[in-house]
Hints:
The complex is a heterodimer. By secondary structure, chain A is of the alpha/beta class. In chain A, 55% of the residues lie in helices and 16% in strands. In chain A, helix 1 runs antiparallel to helix 2 and helix 4 crosses helix 5. The longest helix of chain A has 25 residues. Chain A starts with a helix and ends with a helix. By secondary structure, chain B is an alpha/beta fold. A five-stranded parallel beta sheet of chain B has the order 10-11-13-15-17. In chain B, strands 3-4-2-12 form a four-stranded mixed beta sheet. In chain B, a hairpin with an 8-residue loop joins strand 5 and strand 6. The interface between A and B is medium-sized, with 17 and 21 residues.
Amino acid sequence: MNPVETLEEGLGKGLISVGDSFGRGELFLCDLMLSAEAVKQASVILEEEIRKQGIVKKNVATLAIGTVAGDIHDIGKTIVAALLAAAGFKVIDLGIDVPVEQFLTAVEEHRTDALGLSALLTVTALEQTKVIEALRIRDLRRKVKVIVGGGAVTKEYADKIGADGYGEDAEQAVRVTKALLKIQ
Amino acid sequence: MVLKGHECREPISFLTEDQIDRIHRGTLEILEDTGVAFDSRESLDILKHAGCNVDHKRKIARFQSSLVEESIRKCPHSFLLRARNPEYTLSLGGSKVYFASFPALAIADPRTGNRRPGTLKDVEDLVKLCDALPEVHTLCSPLSSVADKPPKVCMEWIAATAMRMTEKTLMGASFFGCAKWIVEMANALNQQMIGSICVAPPLTYPSEQADGLLTYARAKHPLAILSGPSLGATGPATLAGALVLQNAEVLAGVVLAQLANPGVGVLLQAYATPLDMRYGTMASGAVEVGIMAVGMAQIWRRYNLPTGVFFPMTDSKVPDEQAAYEKYLQLLLCSLAGINYIMPCGGLDNEGAQSAAQLLIDNEVCGMIGRILDGINVTEETLAIDLIKQVGPIPGNYLKTEHTRQWWRKDQYQPSLSSRQHHVKWISMGSQDIVARAMEQAGRIIETHRAPSLSENISNELDRILKLAEEAKK
Lengths: 184, 474
């Protein structure tokens, strides 16, 4: 069994098909979460095998995502992460209450194409600004597309703080991310 | 003297006594085996000192059942929420039913649903409306965010503005460390706040909420401890499971409150809503929200503790039929369940939007709900047997009797927005729908209603505290 083929043609396509069914209203969030989790766990095993066999696989768009420091709202961010995975992204979920530094490290380490910042509270939305500013200082800003979202964030706010994209809901977040990275 | 509000003498029930027992035992099991996380060193120390099994590394406290039951016994069965004008003091608990305004994030145009951020001027206008509307017995600021103050001190500014515009009692938030400053302002006005503490499900007290709980309790302000698991996301997808989780979360706060200040008044407040599996939104207008409220009220009544809900709510974006049926099914269930503190006045789209029109329509329906709770008044006089004999068959009629003049207004609720005129008359008056009529009435009230006066000394004191809060949070 070729691990790359299993990953891309099996799991990857399967997950995309689940994402499509979700979009059509035939499958629901809990189904999507289960599929994303199954793929995530299987990927760990397959990636290990790919490394062992020394196979070079084609690049997929990578995105790190997390809820900013001071904010412990998990669900919205987790739904966006699952939908992105279902759209074919490699997603690194940094969790909740993520300090600025951890976002920067993830961007550097995984060479992510995009970074998703979630904030539900008005005060924690300010943290999104801090992350964007820190990326600029570390000279990483031009290397990643920053997408912001969450209850406290509006399109106007996203523009004001210099984010590249804004997702009003999970599906829009995926659409915007794909458009920014010019993915069909 | 306390505000009359309404009364529910015979609450409805959905759970059997055995089912209540099972949910109670399940709750104790969760508190003892799993425990609750408190992101607050001080809270964990207090709980440990009281005999809780505390894991400082994971910030989890596990509660013996005896401590939980003892804490429930320490809570007053009912308590006063003191207003600076005693006419508006609430007596929370027992059979009382009070209606509160509901907080939302932005202002919605009631026609288009378009939103704009709120300002302190909006808080003023909305609080003025709440002050004038008879069915808004108590307030949670109708706006929870304003764009013209820095986010960090938003809560303090909103609280101060509300305090200036009404003598009715207010709910105080705990976000961003505002509890301390809100307590100071309330003390300056010699009024009590009901301190709102929001658990983060599952089973977590964020630091600002745990700190808020300690702050309000120690300053002798009663608490409303609120848990809002989202069914299928931050709580079990089943109603019974969500009740167990919600109860465990709230009771953990009850224990901490009774340790911080034994005998402090605590209102147990429910806010469980399903996750919509299609859109990932919280289905705040779901009918299950109201059904769970009935069950939760039964359990909390068993504890003999005051009850509250952080709804009725709707997922509709404008005041329309959906807003009406979602809010009022929940409102009717909560009221018939005898919940002491219900929040039906204003609010759309799961806290997303506020509309004065919606607030006025809600006020009107609250009056009807109050009338439902009053039921049918049967006395010799209301039976009117002698009168019926006297009037006899046609051409007798009741329009000209003294009995009618005396009773029609007392025994029937008089709506002020609903259309009851002949349809030709309605057309001649511009065929206005309920939203148009509500908008018009809101405009009139804002123009003519006078806010209560505040002495210059106290007003200056509020300014001084606001300035201190701003300095401290720089």
